[in-house]
Amino acid sequence: LEKGIIDHITFWQRICKDLNKSVPDLILKELWMTPYVSHCHINQDVISLIKSLKHKYVIGCISNCQEPHVQYNRDRHLFDLFEIEVLSNEVGMRKPDKEIFELYLDKCKCGASEAIFIDDEKDYLVQATEMGIKTILYQNLDQLTKALDRLL
């Protein structure tokens, strides 16, 4: 699903089949979006930080995602913040696979030692670190700002 090999409806249809359940496609569509919309709030302070860094650095996004979430975030112009976006469902690979980081570095035309990767999932940082990318485990805005100050 996150590699874009199947869509979200097919994913849920397979789950329902495995559970021997019959669920209308309309409900299947909402299984992704209802909880996502209710929990996916934009942190305006982080947005302000991104905007302030854009004047000096190339800011990009690597995200494991599904098409309904991508469309929702496009509709609210979230991806407009980034010069480069690598979305798992569009490129057929996902974090923490090495290839997604290589693709990102290629798109931004920079070496691993020039990049900083920030994520709130510790497991996603391991591969990037092994490649020589500086990493920050996001916990909160204050911690992120201090970590960036040390690296920049």
Brief rundown of the structure:
The protein is mostly helical and 152 residues long. The protein has helices at 8-18, 25-39, 44-54, 67-75, 88-91, 98-108, 122-130, 141-151; strands spanning 60-63, 84-87, 116-119, 134-137.
Describe this structure in words.
- This protein has 152 residues and is mainly alpha-helical.
- It is 53% helix and 11% strand.
- It has 8 helices and 4 strands, in the order αααβαβααβαβα.
- The protein has helices at residues 8-18, 25-39, 44-54, 67-75, 88-91, 98-108, 122-130, 141-151; strands at residues 60-63, 84-87, 116-119, 134-137.
- The strands form 2 sheets. A two-stranded parallel sheet has the order 1-2. A two-stranded parallel ribbon has the order 3-4.
- β1, α4 and β2 form a beta-alpha-beta unit.
- α1 packs across α2.
- The radius of gyration is 17 Å and the shape is globular.
- The chain starts with 7 loop residues before the first helix and ends with a helix.
